[in-house]
Design a protein that fits this description.
Layout (H helix, E strand, L loop, with lengths): L1 H28 L3 E8 L10 E5 L9 H5 L7 E4 L10 H12 L4 E3 L3 H5 L2 H10 L3 E2 L3 E7 L2 E7 L23 E4 L16 E4 L8 E2 L3 E2 L5 H4 L3 E4 L11 E4 L18 E8 L7
Parallel strand pairs: 1-14, 2-3, 3-4, 4-5, 7-8, 8-9, 9-13
Antiparallel strand pairs: 2-14, 6-7, 10-11, 12-13
Helix pairs in contact: 3-5
């Protein structure tokens, strides 16, 4: 009887393990887009309602062309937040992913740490081949209806000890700035956040998260800034209410498993923030 009970218990544990693995594998392979609306300070009227398709940390995954193509006509700009590839990923796979994304709109990208360890020159060429722009501590003006928003790409330092370079000043044509940076740790070097919107990735949201406890593989700065939306109030700054999105990322690092942290891409609709509304 005792032996039968032990076998029964072992069977239950094995079944739970199989179900848990299946769930973790499903979350890691998911094609899903998180839909957000964000009210931005100083956003020009002509940009109200415009949309960004934001993808970070693709790593070695392949994009589904039928799924991505379903967003055609809904996107004004595609922004890639780095780690577009990693070591041992065929460049042809990267090119195919970029081709699929370019069907939605013009591509703007920054390097991530794994891009620099893989084939940064090949990646830069692949981005250029689809008409995209790789931003390395550079401003670019997005135009809509004769008005402008400044898109600033923060270059990934080869080593964290090297630190980040100073971003260029806001051009006179624009009052609203969007910053794309791979690693959100960049904000540590910014006592005053210099953008209405900051888009980042890198953390994968921890990839494995437990209820209540949260991400089991993140610590320090990243325990606080793990994933999702963050905002500040800096009343004496040029930008009083900056906001930041940290993506959980589309790809996976080390293991193709996620828990309570499904893979995601983003469709972000930009809205004007009235002076009497706090987001």
């Amino acid at each position: 009887m005792v032996t039968a009970a032990l076998w029964s218990c072992a069977g239950i544990i094995a079944a739970v393990g199989v179900l848990l693995y299946a769930r973790m594998s499903y979350e890691a392979r998911l094609h899903a887009v998180t839909d957000s609306k964000v009210k931005l300070e100083k956003l020009p009227k002509s940009f109200d309602g415009s949309r960004i398709f934001f993808v970070s940390d693709i790593h070695k995954r392949k994009l589904s062309e039928p799924y991505v193509s379903s967003f055609q006509g809904m996107v004004d700009w595609v922004i890639l937040g780095g780690d577009i590839m990693e070591r041992n990923v065929p460049l042809e796979r990267v090119r195919e992913n970029l081709r699929i994304l370019s069907g939605l709109g013009p591509i703007y990208a920054v390097y991530g740490n794994h891009d620099l360890k893989a084939e940064p020159e090949g990646l830069a060429e692949a981005i250029l081949d689809v008409g995209g722009v790789l931003l390395k501590d550079e401003n670019l003006l997005l135009e809509r209806g004769g008005e402008y928003v400044c898109l600033t790409g923060v270059d990934q330092p080869p080593n964290k000890r090297d630190g980040y370079r100073r971003i260029p000043d806001l051009p006179r044509e624009a009052q609203c700035r969007i910053v794309v940076v791979h690693d959100p740790v960049w904000i540590r070097s910014m006592p005053e956040k210099p953008a209405s919107l900051i888009l980042a990735g890198h953390t994968h949201g921890g990839q494995i998260r437990l209820p209540v406890f949260g991400a089991i593989r993140l610590n320090g700065f990243y325990r606080k800034y793990d994933c999702g939306w963050f905002s500040w109030y800096q009343p004496k700054s040029a930008v009083q209410r900056p906001q930041m999105l940290i993506s959980r990322g589309f790809g996976n690092r080390r293991v193709d498993l996620r828990l309570c942290c499904p893979a995601e891409m983003h469709l972000i609709q930009l809205k004007q923030a009235r002076d009497d509304i706090n987001h």
